[in-house]
Specification:
five-stranded antiparallel beta sheet, 12% strand, 13 strands, alpha+beta, globular
Length: 497
């Protein structure tokens, strides 16, 4: 739905047998508030029309047009020219021109559903970070829990929740608050940290852990510890000191002989020695390292060192490990923190290799048919880049650039790729001009979409994006005084009474 004062038109001009024809598809206006949609992602949505070229992947090819009418017109044009219409439709490549205008908005070009962005600079990136942090602050309820997922197309908030991602978001608020010297983000982080205290339970292996369901998940406990430590580093506040010590004790008690960690503990069944989950051990190393930074705990630092030694050593020591990395952003974050306390060259080299991998994996502007996707992380050019995948790659590249300094081996390539990834992330962030099709745009502004064509916001999408962007500010030249505040006006929504 669009508001009554706004119209959006997708325009494609094709020469058919009867002469010039223009195909229009308008987003219909509706009463305010808009009625709820019955289907979440309709293949023929008035905003995202389906182009079913590849069976099963119609969502990836949404262009904002009526694909059936468009292909029919292409075939008509082919018949008029004596060309097989179906062959022409399959072999041809086409692009739609989409624009939006309104009472308070001059005509602006849309790119995959969002208003076209200006090239980022330090001021615009800082404004984006603040808007993302504001999204998380505004998503906190009175109990200190976040609005976990928000679908602005349907005005839909699912009931499911993740305490692991909750504490990742709390950590990012403290990180942004510390680096931008913004007390309100630190205050919000403290409320989020406090929210899960009632879920802490004593573990027979040692310390306390955060329960989700019938078990204690190591990753959630590690991120809770990280959020506690980051808040203490940022503020000096020791209100969570006891919980932080208990969480660190649990993380150390879960450490295996090789330096990694067991990932589940059950009150009745004890340790699960078989399950190994993505990210959890890396999160444990980073949590212990930040706990050591916050408290001076040498035992925690020693345990973190054992874990980092394994990650930077035998963890990827297998045949296929010579050819690729998976999502190793937490590894790079841990390596950056550990190198600042225990400067082993292996940590630096490990993160540099990860950063180089991502720098060579993201889409390059001169190597993709869709320049709006430049900087995005995706497996193949046929699909749209994933926002959160790009954000985590940006986190890793930012750490690699920081560890490499100004002139380390391969740093220039990593820095350039990181800047491209920041540019892409800003395209997936909702600003005030993107709300023309949303029922409640004020709830979405500052959030980051899963993809430019999948308008769903989850708190970890925001967490990873602002964590990368705020740490990458130093890669830009200084901004003029007041420039960030001026750029922030793009995120101000006039909410009707």
């Amino acid at each position: 739905c669009a508001r009554n004062t706004v119209k959006a038109v997708d325009l494609l001009q094709l020469r058919a047998s009867c002469g010039e024809k223009t195909l229009y598809q308008r987003i219909p206006a509706c009463p305010n508030p808009c009625p709820p949609r019955k289907k979440r992602y309709s293949a023929n949505s008035s905003v995202y029309a389906s182009l079913d070229i590849v069976p099963g992947y119609s969502l990836e090819f949404k262009t904002g047009m009526d694909g059936g009418r468009m292909l029919s017109a292409i075939r008509s044009q082919g018949r008029a020219l004596g060309v097989d219409g179906r062959a022409a439709a399959v072999k041809g490549r086409f692009r739609s021109l989409c624009a939006v205008e309104g009472a308070d908005l001059a005509p602006r070009t849309l790119v995959q559903g969002t208003v076209e962005r200006q090239d980022p600079d330090r001021a615009r990136v800082e404004a984006a970070v603040r808007a993302g942090a504001d999204y998380l602050v505004n998503a906190l309820d009175s109990a200190g829990e976040f609005r976990y997922i928000f679908d602005p197309l349907d005005n839909y908030v699912p009931k499911d929740y993740s305490w692991t991602r909750h504490y990742g978001a709390a950590y990012s608020l403290s990180l942004v608050g510390r680096l931008l010297h913004e007390p309100r983000y630190l205050d919000a982080a403290a409320r989020a940290v406090e929210a899960g205290m009632r879920r802490l339970k004593k573990a027979s292996v040692g310390g306390q852990c955060l329960f989700e369901g019938d078990r204690c998940y190591f990753g959630a406990s590690a991120l809770m510890s990280l959020a506690v430590s980051e808040h203490r580093v940022a503020t000096g506040d020791r209100r969570f000191e006891t919980a932080g010590a208990d969480l660190a004790a649990f993380i150390r008690a879960m450490q295996r002989r090789d330096g990694l960690f067991f990932h589940y503990w059950y009150p009745k069944g004890g340790l699960d020695r078989g399950s190994m989950l993505l990210f959890a051990s890396q999160q444990g190393v980073l949590a212990l390292a930040r706990h050591a930074r916050a408290t001076g705990d040498r035992g925690a630092l020693s345990a973190a060192e054992r874990g980092m030694d394994h990650l930077a050593g035998p963890y990827w020591d297998f045949f296929l490990g010579n050819w690729f990395f998976v999502a190793e952003h937490w590894s790079c974050l841990a390596a950056e923190e550990m190198y600042s306390q225990v400067p082993k060259p292996a940590y630096l080299e490990f993160c540099r290799e990860i950063g180089t991998h991502f720098a060579r994996t993201i889409l390059k502007k001169d190597a993709t048919a869709f320049p709006e996707n430049a900087g995005g992380m995706v497996v193949t050019h046929a699909l749209s880049p994933h926002g959160c995948g790009t954000a985590t790659a940006a986190e890793a590249m930012t750490s690699a650039a920081a560890l490499g300094g100004a002139a380390g081996p391969g740093v220039a390539e990593i820095r350039e790729a990181a800047l491209w990834s920041y540019s892409f992330l800003l395209k997936t962030q909702v600003n005030a001009h993107d709300g023309f099709w949303m029922q409640r745009p004020a709830l979405a502004v500052g959030g980051f979409f899963e993809k430019q064509i999948v308008p769903r916001i989850r708190i970890d999408y925001v967490q990873h994006a602002i964590s990368a962007l705020v740490r990458g500010l130093d890669l830009y030249p200084p901004a003029a005084p007041g420039a960030a505040a001026e750029a922030g006006r793009d995120f101000v929504v006039a909410v009707p009474p």
